[in-house]
């Protein structure tokens, strides 16, 4: 693992709506190292996509009142639109969620691919540039070759034909491959994969994820996977950030997280995974809070089976427990989580034990829940 | 594995090309199923043919000019003069044929100008939004509020009556419809995921609007343009009826009606045949436009 590539610090994203200000992202911190694959996990609507769009700079309607997005030592939020535009696609790229709608229906795959190579990073193309490009046909052949090579790299067996096809003529799996090919085409250092393959059937999804894994391994690309499925996150990433209602509630290396899930939300997510032996899983009661009027303290308190009065009064800031494992929860009996640490990796604290561990004799109900979680 | 299977089927024959041909066939079929659109297409093909070959078809091509032939004045329709002659003895059939040239030219020029202005402004307004959108769309609203004939008359009155001025004047009052049409379409398309996807891959606003969005709004533009051809011809005829268009002896349909309107009771053919020609053109374009609308499945207004 190399140096830090991307560091998101205390990111807040607000949207102005008719019902008031929606505080959709509320203080998100995470880092991605060079060559690392991390995952952002959470249920639908918890702000995963908003977070990555903020990183990409694709949120024209949002306000970012606080926070930093430091990419290669530069705070992206201080850059001009043109500078951010120059980085999109080249330095950081994104694979969109739905292969059915993420390709332009009226352009062939080939046009969309060569266009990426041609116009990426140029703010606008001038008329003279356009004419020069039309005259210099030679460059097109070069682009075509590169695009077809890339299509072959994503295991498409007839790349020339796919190059000349319209998206409607391709199956979902093929389109997802094309999307991946387009995203990796310009060899970005950082790739965001927004639930790749979720719209596909399970076998295809598995193949797509394998393929993506291989591609990024070869190119030493850092990847941030967005997913709602902890199973997939475990499969593809080294590090998992669990997100709930616009906050990161728990972050840990993948193996640690599964060995010792600490936040009640993470435990709830793990219990929600259907298994062959115990049925379709329990799920988590309740709904996401209203973003225009979120709880001022712990946003998960209303759904938390262990919530204490403190959880509804004081905001829980993330604390680092042991190496690289951080959680934002009051339920542990160690020192209070009342203050924000400038750098959560500063020094690990012993946050103590959660209620479901110390009361295994007195409270058999929560004990059963805890056991169910650790099976996963 | 499922993917491998689909890929192999895809490989085994030229599915992509076949699918495209099939789709084209389906489009042609649904267009031809509608009798009216086929009739419209035939009407317009006739018109275009007549316009292109007017000098060869016309029995008296010299009558398109200022010819005077009082021997033949005000003849009723006969084999010699299928639509009769006007008060100065010119063959109306020949003049109607030459009039088709001017009407089609008018439609094409006006719509080319109106579409290039209107579509560009609509794309920019819809995509950039904000202040740009407000400025462009409010200006458009102002133009929409003024009847095109009236606005065109004002412009021609200011610039002087000539065919070029009439065309510019009509285009000037026509672009706003395209701006509104395109802006509405862009507003919905720009929320589509493929637009965001292309932005994430580094496409700037210029490329996004003209390369990604524009091809997606071509169908409604095509349908509206076809329907508008008829209306533009109608408005053009109206202006030349009022004497604001091409000056005599240029054979425009509107001017011919104006010339014959004093003699409708005695020499009805002088005004009726150019009038029928206008109806013929307008109906033809409307039939095609309706047919295209069904095939392309778009809503215009």
Summarize this entry quickly.
The complex is a heterodimer of chains A (376) and B (301). Helices cover 33% and strands 20% of the residues of chain A. Chain A has 376 residues and is an alpha/beta fold.
Report on the structure:
The complex is a heterodimer of chains A (376) and B (301). Chain A is 33% helix and 20% strand. With 376 residues, chain A is an alpha/beta fold. Among the domains of chain A are: 103-187, no CATH class; 264-375, no CATH class. In chain A, strand 9 and strand 10 (247-253) form a beta hairpin. Chain A is globular. With 301 residues, chain B is mainly α. Chain B has one domain: MetI-like fold. Chain B contains 13 helices and no strands. In chain B, helix 2 packs antiparallel against helix 13. The two termini of chain B are 48 Å apart. Chains A and B meet through helix 3, helix 7 and helix 8 of A and helix 1, helix 2, helix 9 and helix 10 of B.
Give structural attributes.
heterodimer, A: 376 residues, eight-stranded mixed β-sheet, 33% helix, 20% strand, globular, disordered C terminus, B: 301 residues, MetI-like fold, disordered N terminus
Ordered list of secondary-structure elements with their pairings:
The complex is a heterodimer of chains A (376) and B (301).
Chain A: E1 4-17, E2 20-33, E3 37-41, H1 48-56, E4 62-71, E5 74-75, H2 81-87, E6 92-95, H3 109-119, H4 127-135, H5 138-153, H6 159-163, H7 172-184, E7 190-194, H8 202-219, E8 222-227, H9 230-236, E9 239-244, E10 247-253, H10 254-259, H11 264-271, E11 319-320, E12 326-327, H12 355-358, H13 364-375
Parallel strand pairs in A: 3-8, 3-9, 6-7, 7-8
Antiparallel strand pairs in A: 1-2, 1-4, 4-5, 9-10, 10-12, 11-12
Helix pairs in contact in A: 3-5, 5-7, 7-8, 11-13
Chain B: H1 2-12, H2 15-33, H3 35-52, H4 54-57, H5 92-128, H6 130-145, H7 148-159, H8 163-189, H9 193-200, H10 205-213, H11 218-241, H12 253-260, H13 269-296
């Amino acid at each position: 693992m190399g140096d830090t590539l991307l560091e998101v610090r205390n990111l807040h994203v607000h949207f102005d709506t008719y019902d008031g200000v929606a505080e959709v992202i509320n203080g998100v911190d995470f880092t991605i190292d060079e060559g690392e694959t991390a995952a952002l996990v959470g249920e639908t609507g918890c702000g995963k996509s908003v977070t990555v769009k903020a990183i990409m700079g694709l949120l024209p309607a949002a306000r970012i009142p606080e926070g930093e997005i430091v990419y290669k030592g530069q705070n992206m939020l201080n850059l001009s639109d043109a500078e951010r535009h120059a980085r999109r696609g080249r330095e950081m790229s994104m694979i969109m969620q739905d292969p059915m709608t993420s390709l332009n229906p009226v352009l062939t795959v080939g046009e969309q691919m060569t266009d990426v190579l041609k116009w990426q990073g140029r703010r606008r193309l001038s008329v003279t540039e356009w004419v020069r490009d039309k005259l210099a046909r030679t460059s097109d052949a070069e682009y075509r070759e590169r695009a077809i090579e890339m299509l072959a790299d994503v295991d498409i067996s007839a790349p020339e034909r796919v190059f000349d096809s319209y998206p409607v003529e391709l199956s979902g799996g093929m389109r997802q491959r094309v999307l991946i090919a387009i995203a990796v085409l310009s060899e970005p250092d950082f790739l965001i994969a927004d639930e790749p393959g979720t719209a596909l059937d399970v076998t295809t999804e598995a193949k797509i994820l394998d393929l993506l894994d291989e591609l990024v391994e070869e190119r030493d690309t850092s990847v941030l996977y967005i997913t709602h499925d902890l199973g997939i996150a475990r499969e593809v990433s080294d590090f998992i950030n669990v997100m709930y209602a616009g906050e990161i509630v728990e972050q840990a290396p993948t193996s640690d997280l599964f060995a010792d899930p600490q936040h009640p939300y993470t435990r709830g997510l793990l219990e929600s995974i259907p298994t062959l032996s115990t049925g379709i899983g329990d799920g988590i009661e309740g709904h996401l809070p209203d973003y225009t009027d979120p709880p001022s303290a712990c946003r998960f308190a209303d759904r938390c089976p262990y919530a204490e009065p403190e959880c509804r009064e004081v905001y829980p800031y993330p604390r680092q427990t042991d190496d690289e494992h951080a959680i934002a929860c009051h339920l542990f009996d160690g020192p209070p989580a009342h203050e924000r640490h400038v750098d959560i990796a500063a020094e690990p604290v012993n946050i103590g034990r959660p209620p479901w561990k110390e009361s295994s004799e007195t409270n058999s109900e929560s004990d059963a829940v805890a056991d169910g979680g650790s099976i996963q | 594995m499922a993917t491998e299977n689909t890929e192999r089927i895809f490989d085994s024959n030229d599915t992509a090309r076949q699918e495209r041909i099939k789709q084209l066939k389906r489009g042609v079929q649904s267009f031809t199923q509608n009798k009216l659109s086929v009739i419209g297409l035939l009407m317009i093909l006739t018109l275009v043919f007549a316009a292109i070959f007017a000098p060869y078809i016309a029995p008296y091509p010299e009558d398109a000019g200022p010819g005077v032939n009082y021997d033949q004045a005000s003849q009723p329709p006969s084999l010699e003069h299928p639509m009769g002659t006007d008060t100065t003895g010119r063959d109306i059939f020949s003049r109607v044929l030459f009039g088709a040239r001017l009407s089609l030219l008018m439609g094409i020029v006006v719509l080319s100008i109106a579409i290039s202005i209107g579509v560009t402004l609509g794309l920019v307004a819809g995509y950039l939004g904000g202040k740009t959108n407000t400025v462009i769309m409010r200006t458009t609203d102002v133009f929409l509020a003024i009847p095109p004939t009236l606005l065109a008359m004002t412009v021609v009155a200011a610039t002087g009556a000539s065919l070029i001025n009439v065309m510019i004047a009509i285009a000037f009052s026509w672009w706003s419809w395209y701006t509104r049409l395109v802006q509405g379409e862009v507003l919905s398309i720009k929320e589509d995921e493929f637009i965001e996807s292309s932005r994430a891959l580094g496409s700037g606003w210029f490329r996004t609007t003209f390369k990604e969005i524009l091809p997606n709004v071509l169908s409604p533009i095509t349908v509206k343009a076809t329907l508008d051809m008829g209306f533009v011809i109608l408005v053009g005829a109206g202006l030349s009826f009022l004497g604001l268009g091409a000056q005599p002896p240029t054979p425009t349909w509107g001017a011919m009606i104006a010339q014959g309107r004093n003699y409708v009771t005695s020499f009805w053919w002088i005004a009726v045949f150019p009038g029928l020609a206008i109806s013929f053109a307008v109906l033809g374009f409307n039939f095609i436009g309706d047919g295209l609308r069904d095939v392309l499945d778009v809503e215009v207004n």
